[in-house]
Amino acid sequence: MKVERQQVSNDVESQQALWDNYWRSGAARYAPHDDIVDRVRQIAGPGATALEIGAGLGVDILAVASFGYEAIALDISKEALRLIRSKAESRVKNLHLVAADAFHLPFKNDSLDLIFHQGVMEHFPDPDPFLCEQKMALKTGGTIMADVPQTYTLYTLRKRWAIRRGKWFAGWETQYTPGALRQTVARAGFEVIETYGRDYDIPLFRYISRIERIGLNRYGRPIIPWVIRKPVGWLNGLFEKTRLSLYFRQCIGVVGVKR
C-alpha cells in the first residue's frame, strides 16, 4: 500500500503535541467498543481493507485485525501509534500503522473498503473537509462509520462546563444530534443507510438495558426474578428500535455508503 509524504502545518504540530501528551499520561483506559467492531464485521468480510482514523489506544482496530481484515490504524499522535505497536506485537500481522493528518489522508483514491472513527469528528469545527478526504479514499460502494457524542447527555453538560473553565483534556469539542450527524455525513456525498446509538448516559437506562445479564448471585443465578426480567427486557428491546432511543444514548453513529 502506497503511503505518500506530506507537509505538516504548525497547527497539526500543536495537535500532535496535545495528543502525544494525552496518550503518554496514561489517563485513557477503555475496552474495545463491541458495537463498532460488530458493525464492521457486518459491513465487510475478512480480507477487506479497514481504516480507523484517530485510532488512539487501538483497541477497536486491533479487534478488527484479529478477524482477518487488512487493518490500518491512523493517528496524528506518534505516541498513540507506539502504544498500538506495543500491543500488536506477536498478536496480529495484518496491521499497518500510519502517522498522518486526517485532513490529508496519505492513500490513493478509491483504495479502501471501510473507514471508521469513534470520538474524532467532534474535535473539528468544520468536519466537511475531513469527510470529503474519506470519500476520496474509499472505493465506490465503500462504507464510512462516523461515531460521535450525542448532544442531550450529562456528558455534554460536564464537558461544556470543563471547556468553559479551560480544563477539558481535548481543548475544543462539540456534539451532535442524530439529525445533525446524518446531515453532516450526507452533505459530504454519502448515502446514509443507518443511524445507531450505543451506551446509555443515564444509569437507570443502562441498568434496564442490561437487566437480563446483571445481578447474578454467588451461584450464578439472576437476583432479579424471571417475571420481571423478561417483560422489562422485551419492552427495552422495543424502545431501542425507536428513533427516540437515540436521544438517551451517550454516543450515536451513522453508516454511510459512497455511491
The arrangement of helices and strands along the chain is: HHEHEHEEHEHHEHHE
In CATH, the topology is named Rossmann fold
Estimate the mean pLDDT confidence. Answer: 89
CATH superfamily: Vaccinia Virus protein VP39
Number of strands: 7
User: Can you list the strand order of the major beta sheet?
Assistant: 3-2-1-4-5-7-6
Structural class, from secondary structure content?
A: alpha/beta
What proportion of the residues form beta strands (DSSP E)?
Answer: 15-25%
Poorly predicted segments: 1-10
Helix % is: 25-40%
Name the overall outline. Answer: globular
Radius of gyration: 19 Å
Tell me the span between the first and last alpha carbons. 23 Å
Please tell me the CATH architecture by its name. 3-Layer(aba) Sandwich
Domains (count): 1
Strand count, sense and closure of the main sheet?
7 strands, mixed
CATH class reads: Alpha Beta
Contiguous helical run count: 9
Entry summary:
The chain has nine helices and seven strands. By secondary structure, the chain is α/β, with parallel strands linked by helices. A seven-stranded mixed β-sheet has the order 3-2-1-4-5-7-6, sandwiched between helices.
Q: Would you spell out the secondary-structure blueprint of this structure?
A:
Layout: H1 10-25, H2 34-43, E1 49-53, H3 59-66, E2 70-75, H4 78-88, E3 95-99, E4 112-118, H5 128-137, E5 138-149, H6 154-164, H7 178-187, E6 191-200, H8 203-209, H9 226-240, E7 249-257
Parallel strand pairs: 1-2, 1-4, 2-3, 4-5
Antiparallel strand pairs: 5-7, 6-7
Helix pairs in contact: 1-4, 2-3
